[in-house]
Structure formats: C-alpha cells, structure tokens
Description:
With 183 residues, the chain is of the alpha/beta class. The protein has helices at residues 41-59, 75-94, 104-112, 119-129, 139-153, 167-178; strands spanning 2-7, 12-20, 25-34, 63-67, 98-102. It has a five-stranded mixed β-sheet with strand order 3-2-1-4-5. A hairpin with a 4-residue loop joins strand 1 (2-7) and strand 2. Helix 1 packs parallel to helix 2 (75-94) and helix 3 packs across helix 5. 37% of the residues are buried.
Amino acid sequence: xxxxxxxxxxxxxxxxxxxxxxxxxxxxxxxxxxxxxxxxxxxxxxxxxxxxxxxxxxxxxxxxxxxxxxxxxxxxxxxxxxxxxxxxxxxxxxxxxxxxxxxxxxxxxxxxxxxxxxxxxxxxxxxxxxxxxxxxxxxxxxxxxxxxxxxxxxxxxxxxxxxxxxxxxxxxxxxxxxxxxxx
Length: 183
C-alpha cells in the first residue's frame, strides 16, 4: 500500500510517501509545501492545494493520511488550520484518494510508543523505522512520515483512531449476537 502522510500547516505543510504494510515499509519520498507568510491567506491556501495536488499526481498514493488538529493557541489559528486541512482534503478527494485522519497523540503513540513524545523523538523513530542514514527534516516532513507510518501500523484501518469498534471486536460481537448461547 502506498500512503501519503500529511502534516498540515498554514506556512509549511509536511508530506511523506511510504510504501508497505504493517510489518515492512520503505520510504518513497518526503518534503514540504511552503507558502510565503507574506501572501494573503487565500493565496497561501491555493499554493498548498496546488502543491498537494502535484504530489498526489506524481506519487499516486492509495491513501492520504492527514494529521488531525488537536489544539491551537487561539481561535484564529484554529480556523486557519481548519482551512488548510480543508484544501488538503479537497485535493485528495478530487483525485479519488481514500482519506484517513489520525490524532497527533495516536501518531506519537504508534511511532514512538508514547503519546506525549517530543518532535525530536518522533523524528528519530521515523529515521530508525525507515532505516534512514540521516534524520528526515524539517519536523513538518518527519511528522508527515509518522502519520503515514501510523496508517500502515494500523493495517490501513483509520477507524481505530476514531474511537469506533475495531473490526475484530465487531466480528466477535456479531458472532455472539448470532449465537446467544455462547455468551
């Protein structure tokens, strides 16, 4: 499975493409889409949208795994990040790419083993997991690679991060419902 991981940002959006499954994966490419902070916000959104469209066209991912927003310093920042996420989701949807979203805490837990890990810890574990000689930089790109790895670690099942019942548990509940004497 080829996964495009994205770490949204209103000035720098990180991206990383990883190919593999839950046990083995390899780096395809990573980088950032930079939007000049001196541009009007709408022009920055256009730049980010065009950049993501170009990446999707070039690498043809099966899934676009996007980090969810979790907090913002103020309401204005939260709104801006929401707009950035919107143009990213639009680019993926227009290309017909499946979309998965993961909470930052789950990404850190999945890659580092600790949900409150620092960016440096995430960056180092991404380097180790992908067997890279150097740290993937900047943090925006290493965070995006971590999001892609999280999707692969979860077997391509984003519902695990959304608080929904995991497929194995759902199957067990269906089996018990169909066979009430087994309870």
